[in-house]
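Hi R.,

Here's the chain you asked about this morning:
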Amino acid sequence: MIDDVAAERPLSGRHALVTGANRGIGAETVRVLSSAGADVTLMVRDRSGGEALARTLKGRTHIVLADVTDHEAVRAACQEAETAFGPVDILVNNAGSVQATPFLRATSALFQEMFAVHVLGAVVTSQAVLPAMVNRRFGRIVNVASVAGLEGAAYVAHYVTAKHALVGLTRALATEYASKSVTVNAVCPGYTRTDLVSDSVQRIVSKTGRSAEEALQAMLADAGQSCLVTVHEVAQAILQLCLPTASETTGACIVLMGEATS
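And here is the predicted structure, written out as tokens:
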């Protein structure tokens, strides 16, 4: 019976912290980790969104408020999370944003904004939870990067640059903490069925006059995808990297491309 429970709820007794947790990949990751038995802290900017998600879950949840670009707020939120459920065992750095802009129109402020959200947000959150992970000799950090962190893409040079840096951070930390029983990995999905992609489709529609389906198919074709990745696929990949049995996997960048995945 104990083995059956462990198999169904492999993260029982573990504390997971997810940033950008109230929608899209973050929200589905919260659902999956909670179903796997983890106590989950949702780091969000809007409490109402976090509370709406928390009400749908059977497991223990806690909500902390922080914009990942506000480093003091992030540190305070991580401390609050630890007070609620104990030291963080699993960190999912998911918070992010993107907007398409031709390179010649992309200001230095836009590059700095992308770096602040995708890279420094992950840096500060990871620094807040790593000491306890090292002390307990168990930790799982998963960074939600993107195929754009491994390849190039037009009109999002600022986003591509930040995601490449996040992949670099992942690999650097994986190397530094490999001997301390802390794994650091990244998931790199292609276009995923989220509000961000829907917004991108609508921008193409408004600029070109194409239908939403035509705009979406053009995006997928350019990316070499036959369909959108689902948030559940991404969350399941994150779960696999967070399991106690995943101790030998570190520095990996798991690419998810829907039916086009090789």
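One quick note: Residues 193-228 form one domain.

Cheers,
M.
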